[in-house]
């Protein structure tokens, strides 16, 4: 089972969109996939056609201490989506308060990981949709995963914005002795512009072979699909957006066969 967090402390970089559409595309490749919605905004839950406030059992219950009367195991909150092979552990706004409740709890960074390990869910992939912050919910997600996909929109502020995230990963490696593989995905890309080409040269220089070959192009179909509560591959299968994510899924599957060299980014180049 591969556990992958999709993360960036910046919003609006197709993090949730990637969780939903990569998850669905993996499901279409005969993989059994669980999305864990760790974002209090519950956009993965919404984007898969659910109303977050209707749920009494959410990922929040899994993060509650075991002795709490509100605690549930992960398998108790998982529900199927309309897409075959795709499941979700939903979220809602109640999760927002968990940042404060966990802050003084012993082992607070390990609650999600412990919940996954206890449940031993039967999936090929678990995708974790992280909130757009570097708080305790994101730390829980990073501690639980074995791989991280960082979504980046190609503009000049992207590299500066990711610096803090890279530093968080490095701190986690040192203090928590946890060393996930990190990959970069370019999203919302308009390849027709000179700006795109200039920024991509910088991204290639900084991240090298840690960048997926697949690029998620700017595409209205992806946004339309989300508004209808379905993945792009079901809304308009032949659209460029759906095909981009199908290509990404195949690339992710290819990584099952590889053991990439350890290490993150070329840190010396990220100092600004």
Please describe what this structure looks like.
The protein has 272 residues and is an alpha/beta fold. The chain has a single domain (2-270), classed as P-loop containing nucleotide triphosphate hydrolases (Rossmann fold, 3-Layer(aba) Sandwich). It is 42% helix and 16% strand. The protein has helices spanning 15-28, 43-47, 59-63, 74-77, 98-102, 111-119, 136-144, 158-175, 194-207, 220-227, 232-235, 240-254, 267-270; strands at residues 2-7, 33-37, 79-80, 86-89, 125-129, 147-152, 181-189, 211-217. The protein has an 8-stranded mixed beta sheet with strand order 3-4-2-5-1-6-7-8, with helices on both faces. A hairpin with a 5-residue loop joins β3 and β4. The longest helix is centred in the middle third of the chain and has 18 residues, at 158-175. Residues 260-272 have low confidence and may be disordered.
Key terms for this structure?
272 residues, alpha/beta, Rossmann fold, 8-stranded mixed beta sheet, 13 helices
Give the CA-CA distance, first to last residue: 37 Å
Major sheet strand order: 3-4-2-5-1-6-7-8
Arithmetic mean of pLDDT: 88
Number of strands: 8
- As a percent range, the share of helical residues equals 40-55%
Which band does the percent of strand residues land in? Answer: 15-25%
Extract low-pLDDT stretches: 260-272
Number of domains: 1
The largest β sheet comes out as: 8 strands, mixed
CATH topology: Rossmann fold
> So, the CATH homologous superfamily?
P-loop containing nucleotide triphosphate hydrolases
Q: Classify the secondary structure makeup into a structural class.
A: alpha/beta
